[in-house]
Amino acid sequence: MFADRARIIIKSGKGGDGHVSFRREKFVPNGGPDGGDGGKGGDIIFEVDEGLNTLTDYRHRRKFAAQAGEEGGKKNCHGKNGADLILKVPEGTVIKDAESGKVIADMSGDNKRQIILTGGRGGLGNQHYATSTMQAPKYAQPGGESIEIEVQLELKVIADVGLVGFPNVGKSTFLSRVTNAKPKIANYHFTTLNPNLGVVDLDGNGFVIADIPGLIEGASEGIGLGHEFLRHIERTKVIIHMVDGASVEGRDPLEDIKAINKELEAYDPAILEKPQVIAANKMDVCMEGSEEIIEKLRKEFEPKGIEVFSISAVSGQGVKELLYHVQELLKTCPEEVTVYEPEFDPALRFFSEEPFTVEVNEEGEYVVEGPRIEKMLGYTNIDSEKGFLFFQRFLKEQGILKQLEELGIEEGDTVRMYGLMFDYYK
């Protein structure tokens, strides 16, 4: 089956510990501290690979971990940074937190590469802790911890046109005629389980069309493989409803369209705002009442601005006219790809599990300490713009700013967090 969903565990690299050592040279019996810093842990990075169109690589392997940073060494030697782990995914992959279902990242549009988990910061060696009163510190900072979470990968096919219809109406035959796709075709219900993609070429201008697998009533409630298929329609710009215009199997094309639109609306009402066109297929089969069916469809939908085309995917009758109409509809659609905004930062859950304290010391400084703060500082590079923005969001979302205000902090007051000091401003 088409691998459009996978559940995996990802883990960033732990930062290397700082080293404790002292300079030992001839004629220098009591050398100072020279312990080097630990290396940074590797990041987990997701990257779009244009050559991929499934999530098959993640169906048979569950855990992915970046390399840990190495411990610092003697003589101020810096530990080696851990190697990043780059996970390749198809364009259109949405990365969600498995526990909450919230979006972490959407690998669509311009977002081709994104760091999802940052490796732990390398710990400082004991050379950084020497003072006038402590000239031989036997302490080094441990490396920042790794972060491990479970994520859900969902591939939402990026196609200009979505081809929908009940099973066995001829969608696969149509796709094989108008594109370079080679779908499996057979006269069985639910033959198509894969959202087959193909490129239509019209006088040098092309568009991508996706055969969305056969829908059934109740799909929006997850019946059958409903949710597996409906998610692929979200990103399409134009919808082609294909119906059996000759009613070969005795189905009512009008009722079929209404039933599918009902499922689309129940899943996401915004889908019905997309331009639609109706393709009444199998018109090469001369059945009694076929013309009446077409007139019935036109009477129902053309007043709503939805064109009805009488076609035959087998003989090619009416197909070109349909494709040129679809091309014109696409010109009216916005160019940008629908991209889901991030809703969740994995690091925030990782930090929020630990306690912290907010107190005022004898010098009137506001001191914020605790494992939660130490973890956050070990994970975040505050010198970078992105790291500083995360730091600000962390203070707000963890309730630290609120506690500082409750203690009476005012603008210009000093806040201390381990080795970090800054002035408070709203």
Automatic annotation (TrEMBL):
Give a short account of what the protein does: An essential GTPase which binds GTP, GDP and possibly (p)ppGpp with moderate affinity, with high nucleotide exchange rates and a fairly low GTP hydrolysis rate. Plays a role in control of the cell cycle, stress response, ribosome biogenesis and in those bacteria that undergo differentiation, in morphogenesis control.
Which CDD domains would you find in this protein's record? Answer: Obg
The residue ranges of the Obg domain are 1-158
Q: What is this protein called?
A: GTPase Obg
Q: What is its main location?
A: cytoplasm
Which cofactors, by name? Mg(2+)
Q: Give the binding site residues for GTP.
A: 165-172, 190-194, 211-214, 281-284, 312-314
Known partners and oligomeric status: Monomer.
Q: Record's family?
A: Belongs to the TRAFAC class OBG-HflX-like GTPase superfamily. OBG GTPase family.
Q: Which UniProt keywords apply?
A: Cytoplasm, GTP-binding, Hydrolase, Magnesium, Metal-binding, Nucleotide-binding
Query: Which enzyme class, named as a word?
Result: hydrolase
The record's section on InterPro entries has: G_OBG, GTP-bd, GTP-bd_Obg/CgtA, GTP-bd_prot_GTP1/OBG_C_sf, GTP1-OBG_CS, GTP1_OBG_dom, GTP1_OBG_dom_sf, OBG_GTPase
OBG-type G domain mapped to chain residues: 159-331
Recorded hits in Pfam families, A to Z, give: DUF1967 (PF09269), GTP1_OBG (PF01018), MMR_HSR1 (PF01926)
What species was this sequence derived from? Answer: Roseburia lenta
Q: Does the keyword Transmembrane apply?
A: no
Which stretches make up the OCT domain? 348-426
